């Protein structure tokens, strides 16, 4: 897996999947994973998307095989957006399609609003509201839990509601182990900053065609609550899939990928 030295404190790992015809010059899709994940989580999307487009799957700063961050790292959305732009500049991709899941969708919405010249289309799947109503006490308790019991303990307690009642037990274990490998220092700094970021002002500034995907019964937010913020994005549509997972990118990868391909095909980046 290739790496890129983004800054003195970050060596970013990323994957590039390109199964397009060798005589073509494919457009690029940048995929942003969620909290305590890595670029590996797009396994169900890649076979469908990478046949028609070049797929870039980075491990976010602090996560996966990228450099862990210290507990006191000054997290901001701008830092993360700039990390991804450095990667795309190194790959010589001026304009691309952007996909984000879970908190990756929060970063992606801010990305599209703040760097509109770089983003051709936006897809967000199972992403939280633009402002999450967490109290300081809840955040403090969660961080204490990470530091006392470890990340796998947290993932095991919370994974079932993310993946939904129909997700296979073997898959549940895979996700628990993946998320459990996250550095506690990264998570302790990430949760009170990026996970609680306020992007309400970014939504009306998103100028590209946008697809928002959710499920009928997910616990992250109701369909009505999701529709309320989706409608603030000017050129956007909402796709509601059956099921009770809120990590719809993981529970419904094929259907999400198909819908994303439909959006991209109608709005080329060139």
Outline the fold blueprint.
Blueprint: E1 3-7, E2 10-17, E3 28-32, H1 46-49, E4 54-58, H2 77-90, E5 96-101, H3 103-114, E6 119-125, H4 136-149, H5 151-163, H6 169-180, H7 184-190, E7 210-215, H8 223-230, E8 236-241, H9 248-251, H10 253-266
Explain how this protein is built.
The chain has 270 residues and is α/β, with parallel strands linked by helices. It has one domain: Rossmann fold (3-Layer(aba) Sandwich). 38% of the residues lie in helices and 18% in strands. The protein has an eight-stranded mixed beta sheet, with helices on both faces. A hairpin with a 2-residue loop joins strand 1 (3-7) and strand 2 (10-17). The mean pLDDT is 95.
What percent strand? 15-25%
Q: Biggest sheet, open or closed, and with what strands and sense?
A: 8 strands, mixed
Cα-atom Rg, whole angstroms?
17 Å
Please give the alpha-carbon distance between the first and last residues.
Answer: 28 Å
Query: Low-confidence spans: pLDDT under 50, at least 5 residues?
Result: none
Q: Report the structural category.
A: alpha/beta
Task: Tell me the domain tally.
Answer: 1
In CATH's first tier, which class applies? Answer: Alpha Beta
CATH architecture: 3-Layer(aba) Sandwich
Helical proportion, percent range? 25-40%
Strand order in space, largest sheet: 1-2-4-3-5-6-7-8
Output the number of helix runs: 10
Number of strands: 8
Instruction: Indicate the CATH topology.
Output: Rossmann fold
Shape assignment: globular
Give the mean pLDDT. Answer: 95
What is the element string, with H for helices and E for strands?
Answer: EEEHEHEHEHHHHEHEHH
CATH superfamily: Alpha/Beta hydrolase fold, catalytic domain
